[in-house]
Inverse folding.
């Protein structure tokens, strides 16, 4: 496993590319937008340089990692010789399905096709290809280079060999892995969305302020980040898509909080827009 291609250069895609380059993979980061690729390249170079300045990485380590990363809008060039492709685009089934159909035609027979979905079915995504045994979900966490876990979710047809290779790659990336049987939301997203949605309902009902709800969870239950802070970090539009999928598949207890819907309609998407449950414009 030498070349790893990442499709989608947003927050998760660029984080996976960053981590894979430090893991000594040859990396190709692909996106339909050159502007997005330019932003991802700037982010990766800036973050690696900061880490070197702080002594977390060696200068030569950074230089070597940056040389391992290619950036391209050409999916065929990006994935035509890849050993693994990790799709990291929006949580919309039609977009993921379309990408997997294209990858199935482009990639060599041995290529593992992984989706970074946090909620959706790897069985359904893998069924878009002629190689469902090579398809799997690898759920990374944000920020990828700091978070230790990858959830590995096998689809109905995923082979033991594919699971073993995914775990091997996770280890090479410096991560711990957990194997999860496919079910909507897996382990972490199912729990996290439920906690976050209840925090939003409490805020809407006036139970406490956003600051105090988050402080209570951090100091009372030892969570490293409050649920509203975390939702802002993930992106409220992304959280809403996850909640809508879980509501559709798991039922009433996952109905999205009306306040979340209102914020997304207003363009309050969290950190990336400058305002969500907190104001980041300062």
């Amino acid at each position: 496993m030498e070349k790893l291609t990442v499709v989608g250069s947003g927050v998760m895609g660029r984080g996976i590319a960053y981590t894979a380059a430090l893991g000594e993979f040859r990396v190709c980061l692909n996106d339909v937008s050159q502007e997005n690729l330019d932003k991802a390249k700037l982010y990766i170079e800036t973050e690696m340089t900061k880490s070197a300045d702080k002594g977390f990485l060696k200068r030569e380590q950074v230089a070597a990692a940056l040389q391992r990363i290619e950036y391209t809008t050409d999916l065929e060039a990006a994935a035509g010789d890849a050993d693994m492709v990790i799709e990291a685009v929006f949580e919309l089934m039609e977009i993921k399905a379309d990408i997997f159909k294209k990858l199935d035609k482009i990639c060599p027979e041995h290529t593992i096709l992984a989706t970074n979905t946090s909620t959706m079915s790897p069985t359904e995504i893998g069924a878009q290809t002629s190689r469902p045994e090579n398809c799997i979900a690898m759920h990374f966490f944000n920020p990828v280079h700091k978070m230790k876990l990858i959830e590995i979710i096998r689809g109905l047809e995923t082979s033991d060999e594919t699971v073993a290779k995914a775990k091997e790659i996770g280890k090479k990336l410096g991560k711990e892995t957990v194997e999860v049987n496919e079910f909507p939301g897996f382990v972490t997203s199912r729990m996290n969305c439920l906690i976050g949605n209840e925090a939003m309902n409490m805020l809407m009902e006036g139970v406490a302020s956003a600051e105090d709800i988050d402080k209570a969870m951090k100091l009372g239950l030892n969570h490293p980040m409050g649920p509203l802070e975390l939702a802002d970090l993930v992106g409220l539009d992304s959280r809403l898509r996850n909640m809508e999928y879980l509501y559709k598949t798991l039922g009433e207890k996952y109905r999205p909080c009306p306040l979340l819907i209102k914020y997304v309609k207003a363009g309050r998407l969290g950190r990336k827009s400058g305002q969500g449950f907190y104001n980041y414009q300062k």
Notes: The CA atoms of residues 23 and 158 lie 25 Å apart. The two ends are 44 Å apart (CA to CA). The first strand starts at residue 3 and ends at 7.
